[in-house]
Batch of 4 targets.
Target 1
Amino acid sequence: MSTSSSPASPEILRRNRILSSKLYFDVPPSKVPLIYSSAYNISFLGMEKLHPFDSSKWGRICQFLASAGILEKSCIIEPEEASNEDLLVVHPDEYLISLKSSLTVAKIVQVPPVAMLPNCIVQRKILDPFRKQVGGSILAAKLAKERGWAINVGGGFHHCSADKGGGFCVYADISLCIHFAFVQLNISRVMIIDLDAHQGNGHEIDFAEDRRVYILDMYNCEVYPLDFNARRYIDQKVEIASGTTTDVYLKKLDDALEVARQKFNPELVVYNAGTDILDEDPLGCVRISPDGIIKRDEKVFAFARDKGSPILMLTSGGYMKSSARVIADSIINLSKKQLIDMQGTQNMEKKV
């Protein structure tokens, strides 16, 4: 009498995919836990300019850091690109298949002419860069656990949930990096601090019933995505209005971090650090100064340090050319305040 084996449960399949992934790999100590690849940048016949997002800001951040003498390009970590099997950790096959329609991708990235492109070009010029950034976000969690901090100069696609993309977010890199961390890093308490100007409805939907994840989301409640269903799943909701100024914003953030400090003890902090809160950003609609963003990031990293929690930062939204400079200046400030260490071991040896 023969017996047929029962199919593996979704959780076992997810675990097996995570354990067989190549996105986690050993990084030599000479490298700084700052993750970037030139493959992040999106460029195709100028079509990327039809969306207000600066799709080359990631590379310019690293250029500013190198010019400031704070980062040697040889110390940057290049991630692997997320494979289909990696993406299936969170995304159902049906969703990934839907991305083989250029029209579907055009709607997600909000650039209508993309619908007219052959899908092979859409995959290579748009989706491949996003998959590379997903690999960076996932690796960032491992590096944060090992080094105390990590920055993916990209990622933060917080409008994408397992089943649905939107708002220039095709893959749910935040959800993916957390699920990888649950399995590979053996952690069970993650705090998402989402300070992009827009509500992080993607990860809110994905972790709606998951008490291992605590979400602090501070966002402009008057702009996209206006996802009232997802708002029900925010553990700590801080709503701000269009026109909110720097002093008011930073006071609300101080109060929010104090509440978070009392309510949850994370083993990992995922910080979605969008710069679309900058004054005059066309989509964020709040009025935070560049210095305000630098102070914001400093407060979040100090919070993680005080909690003894590793922190990974994703750069997320930011729709002005000035965003790259502000992000670089903020990273420089974090280094000056000794909240991060931008020196690899080789650099340290040279200075001795």
Target 2
Amino acid sequence: MVANEKPKFVTIMNWQETINFVKQIPYGRNANRENFSLVISENKGTCSSKHAYLKDFANKNNIPNVQLIVGIYKMTEANTNIGTMLTDNNISYIPEAHCYLKIDGETVDVTSKEADFEKIKSDLLEEIEIETYQVADFKVNYHQTFIKNWLKESNATFSFEKIWEIREQCIQKLSI
């Protein structure tokens, strides 16, 4: 910041405005996945950090009936903007962990301006509710365990490491 330059602040009047504001923040990984307040200061966030930020906001402001959800879905080229990474590797889908909110039982996805939960809804394999602190280690471990079990059950020829590498390349495409 330049000397004497005042920081810019956004005045948010209510819960819905907060949700809309976070949805407009660009998609991108934060410097520290355990500090979801970085969504605001870094002006970017992932599905995990953005939704954990909103769940924390709801908790601190006594907003009822807000759940933080991790859903495992079949990530495909048709339902997620990942290019041809899966086709290039002869894979139809990879199980992906996606965070979102359920507010009064309705799914709310603020991952990006283009986020459309309907695109993945029919590809959901599993959903669980988590607490905000679980978006870091727990979510990653849960996701990796799911993929390892999926590979074993499907008798896949790919190793876990290779699938995770391809998945990471897909996630990178989302940040572009």
Target 3
Amino acid sequence: MTAWAHSLIRISNYEVETLQKRLAEISSRKASAEVRLAVLDAEIEVERERARADAEAGMLLQAYMAGWKARKGAAESDLVVLDAEEAGARDALTDAYSELKKFEHVAETTRLNALIAAGKRETAAFDEMGLRRRSA
């Protein structure tokens, strides 16, 4: 493999690995946001149960729900942003992987062409040696 092809492949591998790490980090943040939403849903159910059992808690439920709706809205908007970020990261990773495969294909084609050329030179050398022996 030529030095330039090796360098391009190494750089592309680094880019792919970096994007894979970025995607993993985004997926982790997304999972955390989904857990936060689930916890918020569980919290409101607990508060509703408490409000059914206790009249004072029932009076405070509306104020709690207002704050809960704001927190849930923020968590849902974070999740929407993370979904878009994840889609962008997946697209970037797909593009980088495609570029890596192109470089690998070019390097392999170059290597095969060099082998074919070496084979042709060897065949020509043997043909020439055969012609010399015949004429001698």
Target 4
Amino acid sequence: MVELVTVGDTSLRLSPRSNERLETATDVRMHATGTESNVAVAASRFGTDVVWLSKLSDTPLGRRVVSELHEHGIETRVGWSEAGRQGLSFYEPPRDPRDRVRIDDREGAAAATMTPGDLDMELIRSASSVFVGGSTFALSETAVETGEAVLRAGSGGEAASALDLDYRPELWSSGDARDTLTDVFDAVDILFASEDDVRDVLDRSGQARELAPSVAAEWDFRMVVLTRSEHGALVYHDGVIHDRDAIETDTVDETGQHDAFVGAFLAALLDGEEPDEALSNAVATASLARTIPGPLATVDAEEVERLSETFDQRGF
């Protein structure tokens, strides 16, 4: 039985090399990036049996996405579209005092037409856990219906159905995200989000330690997991909050850290770890992901364990 199935869109990200700007760059790096595939890669680094499902453009660009994921050992099951295009993402990293620039060009992406009929729903129903990111829901009404079908089919497993708010203001408004995602919350067992996304999408105020139990109580989540940027992360489960401080690192590329966190957390749960242990694993993984260029967390399970144990011994 597959442990984790992730379902969603993956774009090709183009980023300038060195300190160049998108406006003037003539040489760019290309990476596959998507919340669900990034989570799949991170989870697989810990030995989790994971499959990524999607629909892609039947073009060299769509095949480029699959090739890169295969290089990371991910099993993919893809429906190929002759009509839909391959989504793109353009990313310029921040250089103090410049802010980062991210442009999502995903309108008309093949995944926007993905239906349950394009997916192996039996695989989803039999998996221990399923995961979808909110940015996939932003693509179309069809994607909304498919995302909901996936979550409902996956609820009831060991780690069950998991959703990340994954809010992208470039794709939709916070109000549209709130209206759409809260409608599927009854099919979600574990909610992941950044602290800022909870405030923006769910229109909440307060600190993370107040937000997590409030959100869990209102929508009856089994678990709420919040990342807090430089302040670390926390998990609320069975009336108890566990938190971990962030681990200071040299940041090379911050874009993959949240997805790496989610993948590592789910991998630990599926390996039988308690939520507090999963949190330590996830924070350490996110810290290492910040030191790696690109959105995919090519971490090593042993280095994650060493880092987590080192900071736990210091009272981390």
